[in-house]
Amino acid sequence: MAMMENKALDHLNLCLKTARMGVWESTLSEAPLVGVDVKWDDEVRAMHAMPENYNGDVMEWYFKHLHPDDLPGISERVAGIFDRAAVGRTVSFNYRFIWPNGDLHYIEMHAGVEGLLSDGRLKIYGLARDITQDVLRQKLIEDQKNRLLSASRMAILGEISSGIAHEINNPLTVIQARSFQLQQMCENGSLDAAKIKFAAESISKTGDKIAKIINSLRAFAHAQENDPVDKINVQELIQETLDFCKVRFYNHGIDVRIGNIPEHLEFECRLTQIEEALLNIFNNAHDAVLNLSEKWILLEAYDKNQDIEIHVTDSGHGIPDDIADKMMLPFFSSKEIGKGMGLGLCIAAEILDKHHGKLSYDRSNQNTRFIISIPKVQAER
Q1: Which of 92, 160, 227, 252 lies 20 to 30 Å from 274 when distance is taken between CA atoms?
Q2: Strand-pair partners of 258
Q3: Which phi and psi angles does 130 have, rounded to 5°?
Q4: What is the average per-residue pLDDT within 257-273?
């Protein structure tokens, strides 16, 4: 029996070594992180860069190199073991550890209660693993994802650029006309104070309109997570977002219909982010109806007590269940290769999630309808 137990233990140690996991044990008093007889095996010592000839106190080494910002959280988690001290109770936590050479390592710890000693201390044991490579790999994935999201945003800006040019050309024509009128007055010596005032006011208002369009475009291009939360009117939100793409809809013969939208319906959000989410949904609807004989998009909004809902319905005849189940996953696209990155709905859903809302597909509608639901008040997570 003893031989079998030793063999099983050898197999366990081999598995732990293969997984680059170490074993440690300690006794803890109720004062958080006070250790007695702390023992680390060779693997745990190595992941904490402890020299082989180090004979000092383990906890002294630990506290000396532990990232100072992580100490309060660890103290809280370990102290929590004493709330309901029982055999088998476990706790897990991650922390950053600064090696003597300055390298930063991420350590994952799992601790379990082996028993309560007669003096009130807990006998605990655990496993440790260096997860630095996992963390760095995840950061790399996040960086690549952010670059793709940025590329997607730039692609959208490219798509709407012609519409923005049209929106700016119209007011520029007004400015040129009013300027020519003032010039003619001066050349003919027929200065009329009322007409001059009217022309000047017209130029000023038109210039403000151009500035608003440019500022909206700049804000959209540089939307950030820390943009301020403002109270936004739903009618104005939809109209401003349509300004980015209405020329594109018009050029492709798509009828944009404005349905029921309460005049004073408001909610809190980061404006440029919600505009980006809406624009992605509008573009998705545009592509969906582009080749249909009947091409229209209907926009509606509703007051749902604590929430607001925006409905975007197009003339399509719904989405097959197998596609609907996957269409909000990143990089999933039912379009031809090269026609889309498969990020539009994913980005929209992620933005709405960060606003405590959601994007859903209405499977019950005879056409294709997406529903945006957002709380009127943005509470902190």
Answers
A1: 252
A2: 299
A3: -85, 110
A4: 89
Give the tens place of pLDDT for each residue, 280-317: 888 888 888 988 989 999 999 999 989 999 999 999 88
Tokens of 119: 């003096």
Q: Is 178 exposed, middle or buried (0-12, 13-18, 19+ CB in 10 A)?
A: buried
In the block, tokens 């922390």 appear at 95
The three-state secondary structure class of 294 is coil
- One-letter amino acid for residue 285 of the chain: A
Output DSSP code: residue 83: G
**Greatest Cα pair distance in the chain:** 117
CA torsion angle for 45, 47, 48, 50 (degrees, to 10)?
50
Q: Are 286 and 297 in contact (CB under 8 A)?
A: yes
Q: How far is CA 67 from CA 72, 91, 132, 139, 340, in A?
A: 10, 20, 14, 19, 44
What Rg, from alpha-carbon coordinates, does the chain have?
31
Q: How many CA within 13 A on the CB side of residue 39?
A: 9
- Two tokens at 157? 């800006």
Rounded to 10 deg, the angle between the 132-188 and 193-221 helix axes is 170
Which SS3 state, helix, strand or coil, does residue 170 take?
Answer: helix
Contact 236/266 with Cβ under 8 angstroms?
A: no
CA dist 196 and 185 (Å) reads 9
- Tokens 């992941």: give the residue: 47
How many Å apart are CA 250 and CA 156, to the nearest integer?
A: 17
Compute CA 346 distance to the chain's CA centroid, rounded to the nearest angstrom. Answer: 10
**Nearest 10 degrees: Cα torsion 319, 322, 324, 328:** -140
Q: Is the pTM of this model over 0.70?
A: no
Name the DSSP class of 46.
H
